[in-house]
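Hi Q.,

Before the meeting this afternoon, I wanted you to have the magnesium ion prediction in hand. No need to reply - just skim if you have a minute. The sequence and ligand are here:
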Amino acid sequence: MNAKRTDLIATIVIDLIVASVVGILFFLLAYILTAGLPHVSWSFLTGATDAFSGAGGIGVQLFNSFYLLVLTMLISVPISLGAGIYLAEYAKDNWRTSLIRSAIEVLSSLPSVVVGLFGFLLFVVKFKIGFSVISGAIALTFFNLPLLTRNIEESLSAVSRSQREAGLSLGLSKWKTELGIILPVALPGIVTGIVLSAGRVFGEAAALIYTAGQSAPVTNFADWNPMDPASPLNPFRPAETLAVHIWKVNTEGLASNAAALSAAASAVLIIAVLLFNLGARLLGTYLYRRVTASK
Amino acid sequence: MLKQYSFEETAVQTFDDKTSLAMKTENMQVFYGENHAMFDANLAFPKNQITALIGASGSGKSTYLRSLNRMNDGIATVTGKIWYHGVNINEPGVNIYEIRRHIGMVFQRPNPFAKSIRENIVYALRANGLKKKAELEERIEQSLKGAALWDEVKDNLDKSALSLSGGQQQRLCIARSIAMAPDVLLLDEPCSALDPISTVKVEETLLELQKKYTIIIVTHNMQQASRISSQCAFFHLGHIMEYAPTGTMFSNPQIPVTQDYIAGSFG
Ligand SMILES: Nc1ncnc2c1ncn2[C@@H]1O[C@H](COP(=O)(O)OP(=O)(O)OP(=O)(O)O)[C@@H](O)[C@H]1O
Ligand SMILES: [Mg+2]
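Predicted structure with the ligand bound:
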């Protein structure tokens, strides 16, 4: 077989594989959206859920998902930024570093339901925090940290060594070089990673069922004092998220229109995740232009 | 088959007390782990002159140069003395950040920051506490003029440095170094990634700069060494074999290894 023919066949096979992947994705998206979107309405997006049957709107769940996301990111981004900078720049190549790396790898491969159960036993039961936003956020942090740390480390390491040498040769300290020269170049990659992980966190259910809980008590959206039990910002209240809601409506929902409800909620979830992906791209490109001053 | 030369037979010039020196190394050794890469380096660099370091690939030119401003810290072990203004800067207590501000460096591949042209020059200045806007603007203009880049970029200072050509980027790196007002400038094959026209520009720049700075330049190009340098040191397998005024070195090399290298019948 000559080289040209081999090339042709390989190209066709690869094209077919790509086409089927794209095809499956579009089929899934089209299916979920056509099944769900007709049931989505303003009152569905903002309305309250009937606590007993699970029927009604998803307003509180939608808010909970975003609130949990913000809280999770507030905890996990600074930690993984520190860890990523440490691993990329300061960690020596020795057994301790490889131990840290293995630990991160193991943590990233823990099934999320196990992380959820761990969070349940430790925070909910042992520390008596109860089903709460904060328990959920910490569980999600465990689940989020390893991937985010890896992403940050890789984005930093991808910046050429010569950039570091340039900084050091001008008498800048290692820390100043890292923060002022390397981090801006790596920022688009880091931000993309953060937004993508936000999409993952937003769609996570298993880790939250036993930590953030499965109930969405009616909250008073006029009360923004985080200390009040009825305030939506209170981190110690149980908070069923959208993904958990879908799971619940499907498994124990008593509403007569459970199928339509979960289809609609799924469509909303998918759209949110797609928006995160799109946002990651746009923000990444925008930031790259900003920091490198290229128009 | 590589010819064997004796490392005992060397011809390294020294300077009398009347010559004012910018820097000097005494019995400097460099080790990369177990690998002994630089042996007994004794060189002195007269002020306001260009000294060229030549030699085959792997002979230790970069190793030597990078030791001078402690850029080998954390990469290699450097022993011996490096004299700079009467201070041995190869001591643990020395402030290496301060040293590097006085002894600037330009690398083989242009490495401007992924920032605007202006930021490339002022970033390190600001980090060192220079905040006055007027003075920063002054430094930008002076350094870009010094590196013969001003006319080409003066209307586009906010453009990304990455959008410049390779030769312009390298001159920006030179400008960035001289903006720190160093007194020694180390250059490691600054023209190897450049086309002939950019090379000529950089060489002219260096000839102009030697009025204010002491320049030590590594080059693979013997024509370049003879065009711009006053002193020339020849490196071979981690040893400094010959050090002499450039004219003498090229017209009348003292020892066989240099003679062969310059005649191009090396190895
Ligand atoms: N970072 C490093 N780690 C280990 N060994 C190194 C390192 N850098 C250089 N060496 C070794 O030191 C010796 C001298 O290398 P050096 O880079 O100084 O040579 P050079 O004269 O600059 O060569 P070239 O002209 O190719 O740049 C070589 O044997 C090289 O393998
Ligand atoms: Mg070199």
